[in-house]
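Dear Dr. H.,

I hope your travels went smoothly. While you were away I took the liberty of generating a structure for the chain from your last submission, since the lab meeting agenda had it listed for discussion. I wanted you to have the full record in hand beforehand rather than looking at slides cold. The sequence, exactly as received, is reproduced here:
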Amino acid sequence: MTTTTPEEVRRVACIGAGVIGGGWVAHFLARGYDVTAWDPAPDAEVKLRRLVDAAWPALIELGLADGASRDRLTVAATLEEAVADAQFVQESAPEKLELKRDLLADLDAATPAGVVIASSTSGYPMTDMQTTAATPGRLVVGHPFNPPYLIPLVEVVGGERTDAEAVAWASRFYDVAGKSVITMRSEVPGFIANRLQEALWREALHMVANGEATVQEIDDSITEGPGLRWAFMGPMLTFALAGGEGGMAHMLDHFGPSLKSPWTRLEAPELDKKLYDAVVAGCDEEANGRTIADLVAERDQGVIDVLRATGRLNGGKK
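The corresponding predicted structure, in token form, is as follows:
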């Protein structure tokens, strides 16, 4: 493993500069790192710098680290150039398994020995992605939540051939870099947060497909209901409070039988054209003329307001 400690890292390489990769670039810049990015798309640099510029006002409000500057971003011409002097690598390529396997093998070959390489994959186990890498022990999953520059969570887990030391190093690095880290005990497809989010998403699609609720009603049901509690207290502890003074035990005794009620359909519905069109049209209607840029700015400010209101704006614990 690398002799560089997480605290000593100064240069990060971000491979892939789309929404997630670009969000990582913005985050690392805001935390005072030198960042080298690479993406094979011909217009990648223009889009990346535009994304960073759009994120910067939110990052200023969150609080920049000493020395943080957009001028510390370099866009490399090749993958090899991007990782040549990297002390940590964050891969954020599209979610295609063969692409991930090939790219991680290429990164492993090009990155200095011992440097940890993390994948932003939203669902693939590292065991399935590290199969062709020469030194798979340094490959870990570092799964963020979108946008990485704003949402604190990152889930860290290794594959069957990942060294435990690499997982521990990555977890500590993300902590130093200002993230809220969950180091998972074992691999599970989709990790923790995406599995929970996907269950809600599937039920929402069923309700739209069956004409049981509109896109607007589904969003309102969360933002005006449980989402207000989830902003500072997760579903488990929230349910414990439903048990009153008896806590979770009383809640389970009282509401346990409802687990047999037909309140959810976890199998995904068929995403046919009718459902596809209904979801797209519903989102357009809900946006009510606001552009994606408008909605991004609104989302960013909303998250900042929640973080401030719950005492977590500058990394404080709730």
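Two observations you may find useful: The CA atoms of residues 92 and 98 lie 14 Å apart. The chain has a mean pLDDT of 91.

With kind regards,
E. W.
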